[in-house]
Design a protein that fits this description.
Number of helices: 11
Oligomer: single chain
Shape: elongated
Helix content: 40-55%
Strand order of the largest sheet: 4-5-6
Structural class: alpha+beta
Number of strands: 9
Strand content: 15-25%
Radius of gyration: 28 Å
Length: 371
């Protein structure tokens, strides 16, 4: 079931990407010949006006065919049709139509991150913190998340206890930590020396206040008194504006990371072995869905963002290539030949094919080894 949901999620991202192209192409007056949900062979199709709408048999996305995407097509078209073809349109219209696809994927990622941050979804924020460690989505919480074995707190505290006060002094996690650290040994500070007297910990356990006694011990590595437990993490409270700002920062960091990783893949065999193809992406999405809705939604947002970033790489047949040539023609003031476009895009396309092949090889190796 998780595999089906993962495939559906990936298909929806691609469909919405294509819907962006379709909607803007229609809005600026371009001629859309065909809009298909899924890929051929076609199971159903119907014509409405100049556009044929269909449903294909292979549920891996969809596509939109705009008249005149290839400049060679224009020569054989009727004048009224050619006037609305892609390559006869002003540069701004072409850029708007092409950028609409990645823009939809950017918006999907932003909307997912923003809603999850606003909702205070701890599972999602934990995943987002992992994807972009420099963006703060979690804050320390006063609940006990870990207890060291053989430490003073072992057998005294329980996981889930919420520390309310130390020797009657409450406050934030940082204040509670400072209160414990402020204790000192009866004699010289040596490794393992114990405090002068037990500390009184007031905790909330299963809805009841409990007072516990624990004697801190000096840790030379931490250079302070410890009782041997770790605080957990909780959702950081976000208002609408703060959630939007943090979602934007998350997207920026992930974008930088994506571009850096792709660049490193050409120079580092280690980085190359970490690349995944659509097979690996599907597997990651499947595992994400199996781990819960929050985790799955974050990974879906991450994939949507990556799809947008990669599609904007400036060479054909990617969206970024079409945008580059449209802008180039505007700056140059005249058409750029199809031959020049192909020559410019050949090397990057070969490099992209190399990465796709590497990713597919990695995924096959991982699947065959069971890792």
């Amino acid at each position: 079931m998780s595999l089906v949901l993962a495939l559906v999620g990936l298909a929806v991202l691609i469909i919405l990407h294509e819907l962006g192209h379709f909607a803007v192409a229609k809005a600026v007056g371009m001629r859309v010949e065909r809009a298909s949900l899924f890929f051929p062979p076609m199971l159903f199709k119907v014509r409405r006006g100049e556009t044929e709408y269909g449903i294909g048999a292979i549920p891996l996305g969809g596509y939109v065919k705009i008249t005149g995407m290839n400049p060679h097509e224009i020569e054989g078209l009727e004048p009224d049709v050619a006037a609305r073809a892609y390559y006869t349109q002003p540069a701004w219209k072409r850029v708007a139509v092409i950028f609409a696809g990645p823009a939809v994927n950017f918006l999907i990622a932003f909307a997912i991150f923003w809603v999850l941050l606003l909702a205070g979804a701890t599972g999602a924020e934990n995943t987002m913190s992992y994807l972009a460690p420099s963006v703060t989505t979690l804050v320390p919480a006063s609940n006990v998340a870990e207890i060291e074995k053989a430490a003073p707190a072992y057998g005294v505290l329980k996981l889930g206890d919420r520390i309310l006060a130390v020797d009657g002094h409450g406050g934030s996690v940082a204040q509670i930590t400072r209160t414990i650290a402020a204790d000192s040994c009866a004699g010289p500070l040596t490794a393992g020396c114990t405090g002068r007297a037990p500390l009184s910990l007031t905790v909330l356990r299963a809805g009841r206040r409990v007072t516990l006694s624990v004697t801190p011990r000096y840790d030379p590595k931490a250079k302070r008194m410890l009782v041997g437990f770790g605080f957990g993490l909780a959702s950081k409270h976000f208002g609408p504006l703060a959630a939007a700002t943090t979602a934007g920062a998350e997207m920026w960091n992930i974008t930088e990371q994506t571009i850096t990783n792709i660049g490193d893949a050409f120079t580092s065999s280690k980085a190359r072995h970490q690349i995944s193809s659509i097979v690996g992406v599907t597997q990651v999405a499947q595992e994400a869905v199996a781990n819960g809705a929050q985790y799955g939604l974050v990974i879906l947002g991450f994939i949507s963002l990556s799809l947008a970033v990669i599609n904007l790489f400036p060479f054909l047949p990617l969206d970024g290539g079409h945008i580059l040539w449209a802008v180039g023609e505007k700056v140059r003031g005249k058409r750029i030949s199809a031959a020049a476009m192909v020559r410019f895009s050949t090397v990057p396309l070969v490099l992209l094919g190399f990465l796709v092949f590497s990713g597919l090889s990695n995924d096959i190796s991982r699947l065959s080894s069971g890792t």
